[in-house]
Write a structure and sequence with these properties.
Layout lengths: L3 E4 L1 H18 L5 E6 L3 H11 L7 E9 L10 E4 L10 E9 L3 H12 L4 E9 L12 E5 L4 E3 L15 E4 L1
Parallel strand pairs: 2-3, 2-5, 5-6, 6-7
Antiparallel strand pairs: 1-9, 3-4, 8-9
The structure holds inosinic acid and magnesium ion (MG).
Inosinic acid binds next to strand 5, helix 3 and strand 8.
């Protein structure tokens, strides 16, 4: 399958630094970044390093969710794999995912973190596909808004391929 390059490394890096500035405008020095696995692993790694020169010192946690369904479509039936990280209680949380599509994943993760005592949750997605939204959830901070295309690269997979690509592309 051919990957068509959509946003190159420089474009992605620039947007990640923009997002870091937006995070710094709304969070105090101490807060918690919760990344959703696996798709957000590269984004979180770059985002937290971009926060350091801005004077922020987040804790970093990850939550792994699984969604039953086809390879390209989230079923809306989301499950937690493993445990919710300890120490969410009373924390301000930046919830980070690679892509917000139907919104079911963010909706599930938000209620999970609220049940575990999060004081405030701000959602951040590198890529937003607003035309696909089903759940009543907003992506507060967004890197790139795209139409209904299938994205890969920069941590994001198609059938576990392409996560390693340093840029964002599409496959059809
Ligand atoms: P949602 O629950 O429908 O919002 O889907 C969010 C999750 O679906 C993301 O964490 C991705 O793992 C996956 N996803 C949605 N769109 C894409 C895509 O274009 N490429 C790869 N994964 C996607
Ligand atoms: Mg995902």
């Amino acid at each position: 399958m051919a990957v068509r390059r959509l946003f190159d490394e420089a474009a992605v890096g620039g947007r990640v630094r923009d997002l870091a500035r937006e995070v710094a405008e709304t969070f105090p020095k101490e807060f918690t970044v919760v990344g959703l696995l696996k798709g957000s692993f590269i984004f979180v790694a770059d985002l937290v390093r971009a926060l350091h020169p801005l004077g922020l010192a987040p804790r970093v946690e990850f939550v792994r969710l699984s969604s039953y369904g086809g390879e390209r479509e989230s079923s809306g039936e989301i499950q937690l794999v493993g445990d919710v990280p300890a120490g969410i209680d009373g924390r301000q949380v930046l919830l980070v995912d690679d892509i917000v599509d139907t919104g079911h994943t963010f909706a599930f993760a938000k209620s999970l973190l609220l049940e575990n005592g999060a004081e405030r949750i701000v959602t951040c997605a590198l890529v937003d596909k607003p035309s696909r939204r089903q759940a009543d959830v907003t992506a507060d901070l967004v890197g790139f808004t795209v139409p209904d295309v299938f994205i890969v690269g920069y941590g994001i997979d198609y059938a576990e391929q392409y996560r390693h690509l340093p840029y964002l592309g599409t496959v059809d």
